[in-house]
Amino acid sequence: MKPIELVFFLSLVLQICSVTGNGPVPVIDHVEGSVVLPYSLSVPVREAYWDFPCNGHRVKVAEFRDQKFSITREEFRSRMDCSDNGTSLMIRNLRMNDSGIYTALIYDTEQRRHEISYNLTVFINAENKRLRVLLIGATVPVLLAVVIAVFLITRIQIKMKADIIYKEIQVFPKKSTNQENGTDSKGLLYQETTYVDVKR
């Protein structure tokens, strides 16, 4: 099973467990991804508060009051937004340390209190990372194979040209002086050496 398939399988199992139990709703996504922690009400919302564990304590990260949404934690600025009057929270450009349990406390106009928790798990996108590693790792062997192929093709071409020249020499030998005089019927491959008597 691929890592990405395993993640989605575990997400499905956690979702089933959360439906059958009272635990936080699991939400899983990768680094630099985006998630929405949704919750909707049929009545108007008066105010909503979102908290998150930090250094062993639960701290408020965002709130919706007087029809205004505000982010109270610096690390979430420019990465967090809300919808549905603050009952749904969106987190963009996820980081590993965003993992944890987010709890929403929502008060409607009828003075009723609603609470829901989400267990966010952020993981490294292993598929893309592995693909990049494979591409980088495959580049060197491919280039090496191309260089070897070009070298071998060049060597083969040089050898073929040499073989053709050698065959031409064998097929079309020069006539020897013996052949020209008609004394040798077989013929020699190379021209016969002629010695000249030089007077001293």
UniProtKB/TrEMBL annotation:
The chain crosses the membrane at residues 133-153. Residues 42-122 form the Immunoglobulin V-set domain. This is Uncharacterized protein LOC116406763 isoform X2. Gene3D superfamilies: Immunoglobulins (2.60.40.10). The keyword Transferase does not apply. Keywords: Glycoprotein, Membrane, Signal, Transmembrane, Transmembrane helix. GO terms for cellular component: membrane. The gene is LOC116406763. Residues 1-21 form the signal peptide. It comes from the Eukaryota. InterPro entries: CD2/SLAM_rcpt, Ig-like_dom_sf, Ig-like_fold, Ig_V-set. SUPFAM superfamilies: Immunoglobulin. It is found in: Membrane.
